[in-house]
Amino acid sequence: MKRKISTLSAAVIALFMLLVIAPVSFAESNAIATMARILTELNHYPSAEQKVTLAAISKDEGNSDATRAIAEAIHNVEHQAKADDIATLKIVSETASTTEGEKQLAEIVMNLNHSVSAETKKALEALAM
Q1: Which residues are within 8 A (CB) of 16 and not within 5 positions of it... i.e. 6 or more apart?
Q2: What is the pLDDT of residues 41-60, one digit of tens each?
Q3: What is the pTM of this model?
């Protein structure tokens, strides 16, 4: 009887993780991939459609603060990132809890000048998968 309860508890915990925690992680990785795709297409500033997508990412509380800050910075790009956004991205890139993908995106946006290089596009394509 005790073994049945233990198995049931494990199943409930697994289901909880699948339904509650996994979508948050998926949303985060999907946001990273979406921002990477936007940056590969960026030419001086994001399009109106891309700005809508970036605004949604920056307002989605399911995303980390770092992801939301990166989305806002990309949204505000006009040839390059704004000074205030660069300061925020620097903090993002130096924070221990920031994921590697977030750090990469933050660095790319901080160094953006009109569009991304061919080398940077390759890195972004890897993040977009």
Answers
A1: none
A2: 999 999 999 999 999 999 99
A3: 0.78
